[in-house]
Amino acid sequence: MRLYHVTDRGSAERISDEGFQDTEVIHDDREILIGVWLSDRCLAGEDDVGPRLGPAPDVALWLDIPAEQVEPYERIDREKPYREFCVPADVVGEYEIGGLQDLEEFEVEERRRRGQALEAP
After folding, report:
1. How much is the pLDDT for 79?
2. The pTM is what?
3. Which residues lie below 8 Å from residue 33, measured CB to CB, with a gap of 6+?
4. CA-CA-CA-CA torsion for 91, 102, 84, 116, nearest 10 degrees?
5. What is the pLDDT of residue 46?
């Protein structure tokens, strides 16, 4: 399963060098979780993603992790069109980071996938 972690470039470089570390995550303003926040699609620009603390996210890291490894950590919300996971860093750390991509590139790919017109340069 391909999963994404949206963050700022400085944090992404640190993660690439040192690996993921568990952090405190506030889920839907009602639940504090400890782990690495991942989703099954890049959440850049999603309307239902709450505010983030710290630097503005501008990149996404992606990893391929077997579904059976992350499904126990899924945060199920049937109203969201994507899947979210808060996975312990030691589990995520068993898998290689597949790449880093600018969020602007994801936006273009998502518009292409949906068949929306792209702006001319």
Report:
1. 86
2. 0.77
3. 24, 25, 26, 27, 75, 86
4. -150
5. 54
Q: What are the tens digits of pLDDT across the range 32-85?
A: 889 999 999 887 655 444 445 555 677 889 999 999 999 999 988 888 888 999
Cα–Cα nearest to 59, from 114, 23, 100: 100
What are the start-end ranges of the H helices in the chain? 9-18, 67-70, 89-92, 103-114
What's the CA gap between 3 and 85, in Å, rounded? 9
Cα of first residue to Cα of last residue in the chain, in angstroms, is 34
The closest of 7, 6, 2, 15 to 93, measured between CA atoms, is 15
Q: 121 Cβ partners below 8 Å, 6+ apart? A: none
Sort 106 into a burial class: Cβ within 10 Å, 0-12 / 13-18 / 19+. buried
Dihedral sign computed on CA atoms, order 62, 67, 71, 74: positive
